[in-house]
Design a protein that fits this description.
By secondary structure, the protein is of the alpha/beta class. The protein has a single domain, classed as TIM Barrel, CATH 3.20.20. The chain is built from ten helices and eight strands. The N and C termini lie close together (12 Å). It binds 2-phosphoglycolic acid. The site of 2-phosphoglycolic acid has 13 residues, from β8.
Length: 247
């Protein structure tokens, strides 16, 4: 069976003191985890997190990465810079980046390519808005988003982690039901199968108000291989409960 993966997305939260307390509590509470665990922390804290996570029990992730390798791109952070801090994963195409920073499907595809070229595993996010779901466009939207990434990355697609994050479920307390999530995950799996013979090993995470109470049911679905967790990743007890639901 594929190993599950639980990833915390701290978003723009944290401070030196709070990060230290949270990471120490996670490490102390986790023991030997049978699933993969990672936290995507804000860039200024990678150096701190790298030291605190030196045991390797929890992997370090970034929340974004540049599509460019080097040069005059003010404010951007290259994948090589991530590597220097031991970053293993980079979230790419999160709906907040698409919404507030105008990231298009094409940009998301290039960021995926840039991460892969540097040996960083991109966690590629797709998901429909509430209006798109209500208009019956969920399938069309997530397929279009994934198709752009497949088109640009070819067979390397087998090296990504995919995350289905319905936008209406992010930070709202509204979670997709396990059946709704599984339905989309199955569509995405089929799309990956058409693109690579290694589709079955690609982890497809669910994200959107995953919490200690709903994680086990979501993670029990055939095509849900883990979680991308926002709000609940900021509290050690909640995040640890999700990790243990994934064991
Ligand atoms: P949430 O965020 O768990 O707070 O809904 C998930 C995400 O945006 O990755």
């Amino acid at each position: 069976m594929k190993k599950k993966l639980i990833v915390g997305n701290w978003k723009m939260n944290g401070s030196l003191a709070a990060n230290q307390a949270l990471l120490q509590a996670l490490l102390a509470g986790m023991g030997q985890s049978a699933c993969g665990v990672a936290v995507c922390v804000p860039a200024p804290y990678w150096a701190q997190a790298q030291v605190l996570l030196a045991s390797g029990a929890i992997d370090l992730g970034a929340q974004d990465v540049s599509q460019h390798a080097v040069g005059a791109f003010t404010g951007e952070v290259s994948p090589a810079m991530l590597k220097e801090f031991g970053v293993r994963y980079a979230i790419v195409g999160h709906s907040e980046r698409r919404q507030y920073h105008g990231e298009t499907d094409a940009v998301v595809a290039l960021k995926t390519q840039s991460a892969l070229a540097a040996g960083i595993t991109p966690i590629v996010c797709v998901g429909e808005t509430l209006a798109e779901r209500e208009a019956g466009k969920t399938e069309e939207v997530v397929k279009r988003q994934l198709a752009a990434v497949v088109h640009t990355n070819g067979h390397c697609i087998s090296e990504i982690v995919l995350a289905y994050e319905p936008v209406w479920a992010i930070g709202t307390g509204l979670t997709a039901t396990p059946e709704q999530a599984q339905q989309v995950h199955a569509l995405l799996r089929a799309q990956l199968q058409a693109a690579t013979s290694h589709a079955d090993r690609i982890q497809i995470l669910y994200g959107g108000s995953m919490n200690a109470g709903n994680a086990a049911q979501l993670l029990a679905q055939t095509d849900i291989d883990g979680g991308l967790v926002g709000g609940a990743s900021l509290k050690a007890v909640d995040f640890l409960a999700i990790v243990s639901a994934a064991q």
